[in-house]
């Protein structure tokens, strides 16, 4: 955790239990969701929003661990409160649960809070975990991580996993109730792709043609994209940086040989449009025919590859994609490509001008539609009793 994030983390924990107790005083039947990070929030988000739609009168608490999700969630209107999760000590856990008294507790993916989960079990509070995916080589399966396996056996009423392999692994470990429900993020990206939405600036810049979209990119990837764009003046590139630092945006603008413009200071005729704004990437993909998703060169995992795939776009990403099962699935389906350098990304771009594009687009769309429906299954399990 960076020094800036650590400062926000410490500030957010000052007087935390008192603030939670004041907020929840007198409330009953609170539904509580916990996510560790922004990525885990995106997994839980469709379920949170489905819960709000089904129970508009109920109180929903969202707790988080990371400042990267706490800060933007302060304006999230689908829940009643957003707090950091108190540190996992027995004293904190008891005070927290005394204050909240949740009727349901829903965790996401990898939550591992021994004191909290043990106390939830002791109080007989229905506790669930969603979107679990366990690989055969997971360190959680090693002999030294027995506490993790013990929690899965005893602390969750139902464990909801993304695929059959994860279910088989957990059943062999003695977990009593494991259901394959899939990935609720797929429901969200399909819903966004089906929206009637357009952006007048991007629409004018595109000029009625589909473009190449590079989403959630970092500085090393910008150099790669500029190299390709400078060799292909006939192609338009929509670049959506992950970090909106002015120096990095200026580097893109300065490095273009055929004209680049930023979204917030738009002028027509530029080959490259830099979307220096936040919150619209998932919708901007609709202007593309193919995509590159950043993260696999600098972060060790890509950002959401299913966002462009939901529009029927073949997707390229960097070499460090092994932690993302959607990348593996898209490669297997013929709609995803891992690239290691600018030459390979250029080959992907040129390939998308041929017959590959139609086949890969159909494969991407089919993969997403076949994977839909997780949110409804999860809701039935949690609230069907």
Our count of domains comes out at 2
Spatial order of strands in the largest sheet: 3-2-1-4-5-6-7
Q: Could you describe the largest sheet, including whether it forms a barrel?
A: 7 strands, parallel
**What is the structural class?**
alpha/beta
Overall radius of gyration: 22 Å
DSSP strand content: 15-25%
Structure description:
The chain has 385 residues and is an alpha/beta fold. The chain folds into two domains: 3-185 and 372-383, Rossmann fold (3-Layer(aba) Sandwich), CATH 3.40.50.11720; 191-370, 3-Layer(aba) Sandwich (Rossmann fold). It is 44% helix and 17% strand. It is built from 18 helices and 14 strands. It has helices at residues 3-13, 16-24, 38-54, 67-70, 90-100, 114-122, 146-154, 164-172, 185-193, 200-206, 219-231, 246-255, 281-284, 306-309, 325-333, 342-351, 355-370, 374-383; strands at 30-35, 60-64, 81-84, 102-108, 126-132, 158-161, 178-180, 211-217, 237-241, 260-262, 272-274, 288-293, 315-317, 336-338. A seven-stranded parallel sheet has the order 3-2-1-4-5-6-7, with helices on both faces. Helix 3 links the parallel strand 1 (30-35) and strand 2. The longest helix is centred in the N-terminal third of the chain and has 17 residues, at 38-54. The two termini are 40 Å apart. The model has no long low-confidence stretch (mean pLDDT 93).
Secondary structure: elements and pairs:
Layout (H helix, E strand, L loop, with lengths): L2 H11 L2 H9 L5 E6 L2 H17 L5 E5 L2 H4 L10 E4 L5 H11 L1 E7 L5 H9 L3 E7 L13 H9 L3 E4 L2 H9 L5 E3 L4 H9 L6 H7 L4 E7 L1 H13 L5 E5 L4 H10 L4 E3 L9 E3 L6 H4 L3 E6 L12 H4 L5 E3 L7 H9 L2 E3 L3 H10 L3 H16 L3 H10 L2
Parallel strand pairs: 1-2, 1-4, 2-3, 4-5, 5-6, 6-7, 8-9, 8-12, 9-11, 10-11, 12-13, 13-14
Helix pairs in contact: 2-5, 3-18, 5-6, 6-7, 11-16
């Amino acid at each position: 955790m960076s020094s800036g994030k650590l400062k926000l983390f410490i500030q957010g924990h000052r007087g935390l239990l008192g603030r939670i107790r004041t907020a929840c005083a007198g409330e009953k039947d609170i539904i509580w969701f916990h996510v560790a990070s922004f990525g885990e929030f995106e997994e839980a988000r469709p379920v949170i929003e489905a819960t709000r739609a089904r129970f508009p009168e109920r109180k929903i608490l969202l707790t988080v661990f990371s400042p990267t999700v706490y800060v933007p969630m302060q304006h999230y209107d689908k829940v009643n409160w957003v707090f950091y999760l108190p540190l996992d000590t027995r004293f904190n856990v008891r005070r927290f649960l005394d204050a909240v008294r949740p009727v349901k507790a829903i965790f996401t993916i990898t939550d591992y809070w021994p004191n909290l989960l043990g106390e939830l079990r002791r109080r007989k509070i229905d506790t669930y975990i969603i979107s679990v995916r366990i690989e055969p080589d997971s360190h959680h399966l090693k002999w030294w991580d027995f506490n993790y396996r013990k929690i899965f056996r005893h602390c969750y009423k139902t464990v909801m996993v993304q695929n059959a392999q994860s279910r088989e692994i957990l059943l062999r470990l003695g977990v009593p109730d494991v259901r394959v429900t899939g990935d609720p993020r797929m429901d969200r990206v399909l819903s966004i792709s089906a929206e009637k939405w357009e952006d007048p600036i991007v629409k004018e810049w595109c000029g009625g043609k589909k473009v190449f979209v590079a989403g959630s990119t970092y500085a090393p990837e910008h150099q790669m994209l500029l190299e390709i764009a400078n060799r292909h003046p006939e192609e338009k590139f929509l670049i959506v940086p992950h970090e909106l630092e002015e120096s990095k945006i200026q580097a893109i603008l300065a490095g273009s040989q055929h004209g680049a413009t930023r979204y917030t200071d738009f002028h027509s005729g530029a080959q490259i449009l830099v979307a220096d704004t936040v919150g619209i990437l998932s919708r901007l993909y609709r202007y593309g025919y193919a995509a590159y998703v950043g993260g696999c060169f600098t972060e060790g995992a890509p950002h959401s590859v299913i966002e462009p795939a939901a529009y029927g776009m073949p997707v390229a990403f960097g070499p460090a994609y092994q932690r993302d099962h959607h990348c593996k699935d898209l490669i297997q389906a013929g709609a995803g490509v891992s690239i290691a350098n600018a030459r390979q990304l250029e080959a992907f771009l040129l390939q998308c001008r041929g017959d590959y594009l139609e086949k890969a687009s159909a494969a991407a769309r089919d993969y997403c539609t076949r994977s839909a429906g997780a949110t409804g299954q999860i809701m039935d399990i949690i609230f069907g009793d």
